[in-house]
Sequence to fold (1185 residues):
Amino acid sequence: MSLEDASLDIVPGELLAVVGENGAGKSSLMNVLYGLYHPDSGTFRMDGKPVRFKSPRDAIAKGIGMVHQHFMLVPTLTVAENVVLGREPTKRGLLDLDRACDEVAATAKRFGFQLDPRARVDTLTVGSQQKVEIVKALHRGAQVLILDEPTAVLTPQESDELSQVMRGLVAQGRTVVLISHKLKEVLGVADRVAVMRRGRTVAEVRASETTVSELASLMVGEGTKGAALTGVPAVASETPEAAAGPVVLEAKDLRATGDNGRPALQGVSLTVRAGEIVGIAGVDGNGQRELAEVLTGLRKLEGGEGTLLGGPLAGLTPALAKARGVGHVPEDRLARAVVKAMTVEENVALGRHRQPPFARGPWIDFKGRRERTNQLLTAYDVRPPDPAVALQALSGGNQQKVVVARELDAAPKLLVVVQPTRGLDIGAVAQVHERLREARARGAGVVMVSLDLEEVLALSDRVYVLYEGRVTGHFPRKDLDERELGRRMLGAEGSHG
Amino acid sequence: MFEVLHSLLFSTLDAAPALVFAALGAMLSERAGVVSVGVEGMMRTGAFFAAVAALVMPTPLAVLVGMGAGAGIAAVHGFLSIRWRSDQVVSGMALNLVAMAGGTFLLESLYGPNGTPAITQLSRWNLPGLSHVPLLGALSGHAAPTYLALTLPFVFHLLLTRTPLGLRLRAVGDKPHAVATLGLSVPALRWGAVLGGGLMAGLGGAVLSTAVLDRFEQHTPAGLGFMALAAMVFGRWTPLGAFAAALFFAFGNALRIGLASSAPWLLDLVPQGFLLALPYLLTLLVLALQGQRGHAPAALGTPYEQESR
Amino acid sequence: MGERTRQVLPSVLSVLLALAVCWLTIAFTRDADTATRAYLQMLWGGIGNWPAFLEGGSSNAVLRPLGEAAMKAALLTLTGLSVAVAFKVGLFNIGAQGQMIWGALAAALVGAHVSLPGLIHVPLALIAAAIAGAAWASIAGVLKLKRGVHEVISTIMLNWVAVSLVDNWLVIGPLRAVAEGASSITGTAEILPTAQLPRLLGDSSRLNLGFPLALVAALGVWVWLSRTRSGYETRAVGLSPEAARAAGIPTLWRAGGAMALAGALAGLAGAVLVLGTEGRYPGSLGAPYGFDGIAIALIGNNHPLGAALSAAVFGILRAGGTRMQLLGVHKSFPELIQGFALLFVAGRMVWLALLDRRQKRAQTQAQGPAQAGAEVPRV
Fold:
């Protein structure tokens, strides 16, 4: 992530959106603006005067506040403690928590938020935590509020609510900078849009004078058709109805506990057939991750039953799942899919390292491993095509290509993918989507969990919606409707499913 | 009976301060997220320099020198683990080894194998009203560190739970990035905690050579630093918990030594080795029962890395 | 600068810097001449006084010091491997000391109280020691894997438990050797001759089978880690436990196994000490070889062969330490060098930053001045 020659004019009292692909430098620019990163060269001017932010302290003093994509809250502290941290009210040198609670409650109320200042942050929902973040900035008197991908974890309805909050702040004369890659959403709320590409600002346009497809082509650059690559309707229409094959997964009433010890799956039933892509939609944290983990043997099934590729779902382990033909592209690539300090070829072997061509008896088969890796690197166009380089030297997109190559090379009968394109640039996204379609064409059943509704809509033959560990909706392709999905993601039951 | 209890309490209160100070120091550093296995080395350094200083200056001043020496070791730890984001356990163990061998080398080359010459011990204070009250009388007749050790844990408790600084320290140990985005300096807070921890560990060491003994001995502190770590863990990284655990361990030690002289037959039934092992076994047991994750600061041992651009 | 150089160079520089710093320490407390002569004595004490030997001295002048160095190197190699193996699976084994204590005790008991022909007795005593060490380490392993107890804390505690139970109870109580005649004996009973590790260079040198044993162990660990499936799995678990689990690797078994192997290696160190030189479990183990293992492993960059190499270096220095006493420098002085070396290795990041800066400067000089900065953007 880097910036070169990025410029931005921020006009008071407007809602400016900064759009760009992942890795285009949006977050970097904002972190520079907020004093967290330091530019090699360049200047800021505020109200005509040059300013220099050595740390966020300076930015805060100048009235800039930021809500980070990954919340910057201390989970063990209360809402009030989080908000006042760094500017704590005191009485005779001691912390005055009562006053802190009053102040925070007052600030929250002034902007129309409902927050219990005495609640511990780790007991709050994601949506509430985001409100704490916003209150934290406003409490510091932020005139300019930067929001970094704030809707990534929200439902469409929660996003609407956030839009109203942002418009409300602008109406009060504050300035909001919204960073996003969701173009439709941006056009609905912003006054002006700045487009970034490869660390540069390439355009600034009025929201009322542009369209999604114009922004998309600005984002990816000249000569590329934006709409075709952003996963908006054009792609969806390419997807034909799948010819359903034999059932590869039949699950009834699955139950499992989440990491926090609370029930994560509370009776999920689903069916997956060979040769179809089944999308799992839902707001982050409604059991999708746990479902994927149950299907790949990573999480213990505590109730319900199922048949997965001819064997019982209960008692599944990762090794057993692999042996039956389950492929897995997990959500958190660096944590789950690869060992970044190992070489590319060692990562290609990961999970299949006990069988030829990666092993011969108890020994590693160096030659066989090298040959197979070279084949895959060529086939999937991984750069650099060097099997002996450490995986962490590759870009995120190329790392993901290695993971997808490895999983598909094993010719899985059921492929479980979670957020397969998170953090990838548009070119890599298109390639990953193409590979998933290929897997389907080859007859694999694909379960795709994604928080990106556009992705779900673009690829799925059928969609299950999860809410609080239950299926609240089940839509065949022809009945897919974004608003209806959103309603189900918030727990509304319907006649379907 | 009272006689026995009295003398047990008395020796507990005599022996506890070093453990209490070191445990508080380790806790301070760890609550801010910096692992403190180097506390043994800091104690040794503090003990050595306090003893050497006491040869040429009044003992109370020498104790300050010992504190400074502990902080000096802590500064190296801070330099490696905060400034250069080194592995905190490695850095701490390295300092332990350096302090171990360095102490021996300096001691032998300056004073010979029998330890430093004797120094004037810190004077003991008699609390006139208390001396003759049963049991409470054990409170009287200790040197200043004992009384400090009985109050400092409460000061630390107040500091951590009721002051802005304490709030920030807790936050920086749990989620440093959140602290950084509010414009507070993570390194500054951690440096403060590490140096403060070094001062406390140095004080613990200095007490050993100026109040418990009257010189620096070859093996000082003989694992007391590690016992302080146990007390900190046993006390769930809280000042009062660590205090209670340290007192408990010191009491156990006093009991063992008391038994060895007054009731040797008992030690045939319960071997000394068992009693020696008891603090560590108990700490292990408590950890095994509760698991550790719930109580250690979340970012403990994780170097803070602010992407520079 | 190649990746391998980046791995090795900081360790080498750290040892050299430690040698320099410690030389200065003597030079300041004494004088430069004493410092130099002390270093020479240390060298002769470690690798043998070759000048004297070549001038026609007895071969003992060389054999004895080399034997001492090899003996120390063997112990350091084994405890260093113990720490390094645990590191490979992501665990910090501070507990080699405690594991070594149990290993030494087991070897001493089997060596003294079981009578067998030598060909079986020695292996049996070694195996007993390895099992004892492995069992002790496994306590920490199980606590970590089942209860989430951090291994640094648990192994520190276990060390003290081992010291308390063995040194302060068993070997002075139930297991103490029965006094023969008037002389009271500290430690356990003398091992039988059949259990002694054979000496390789005759009686004048204490070089025994322990040294080749340690080298074989280092080679074995290296081959296992780099060439076998299970070694690969172990490294994967160490580098990313979650990814390893998702890949179907039995992470608990690999982590537990590596910890047990670490304990076994430390236990072997105890056996080599008892069967090779001490002849019994003495009153206490003497030197904290288990803690030294931490330094050896880290200076050796957690590579099995690196650990063997750094053990050889410090084995030589420490064997030479006794000779420094001739000049009034305490025999533990090499431990100070070792401590500083570890401290400097802990600053690996500092070394790498310095090396990178040097390299960058060399490059800019070769290429001429870097291009002027990009144009200044407006904001």
Remarks:
- The first helix of chain B runs from residue 2 to 31.
- The mean pLDDT of chain B is 89.
- The longest strand of chain B covers residues 124-125.
- Residues 16 and 250 of chain B are 5 Å apart (CA to CA).
